[in-house]
């Protein structure tokens, strides 16, 4: 991590994924740009700007670009939920992306599948140092704080016995994956993918083009299968923000030391 002062842009797609975070912000100041409310202030000793992007790649990209151009953030963190891929990735686990791919990017025959035209990139690596910090923060939250902030009833409901941290490939696309067949198709072409969602790789592309460090953290809300719509709605209402607040707090405390 460089020695420059940090201004952390924190993005989530939905209110439930970031609910309560701004309540911990000191001296919050809100402003509206492009139909989005950006709230700046100090979070656990770190200069930060929080914003809800709404759902999808275009919404996320516009939000990330505004954070960089208008609010001068130096680092970007996306926190939210995702569908888990594979038997080892379960509801309540946390996936931190070390690479991201837009699974719906296909400009063949002009460019190889998944390659973002005119960038030469198909997989976008997250910033190594920030990602390592986020992974340590998530691991600490899971091991030391989860049982304090998530009720016993919710831990039982979602079977959050010993949630685990995973580091690997996250795939993004403008599609809510809720079919075993569709998920199987994705795993055929991206066998190492750990989570599917709708914003991360778009944020990654913007940060890549602006040369800013970023990290993407996803709490697994469902199995990206036929039960996904029900599991997603319950998890996001009852649990998601507790993960976000707990992990972001740990990230901020690590970044300021």
TrEMBL record:
Pfam family, one: PNP_UDP_1
Top-level taxonomic group: Bacteria
CDD domains the UniProt entry points to: MTAN
GO-annotated cellular components: cytosol
InterPro entries: Nucleoside_phosphorylase_d, Nucleoside_phosphorylase_sf
SUPFAM superfamilies on file: Purine and uridine phosphorylases (SSF53167)
Keywords from the named record: Glycosidase, Hydrolase
One MF annotation (Gene Ontology) recorded for this entry: adenosylhomocysteine nucleosidase activity
EC number from the UniProt entry: 3.2.2.9
The Nucleoside phosphorylase domain, residue ranges: 8-242
One of the protein's GO biological processes: L-methionine salvage from S-adenosylmethionine
Regions that span the bilayer: none
Name of the protein in question: 5'-methylthioadenosine/adenosylhomocysteine nucleosidase
Organism of origin: Noviherbaspirillum galbum
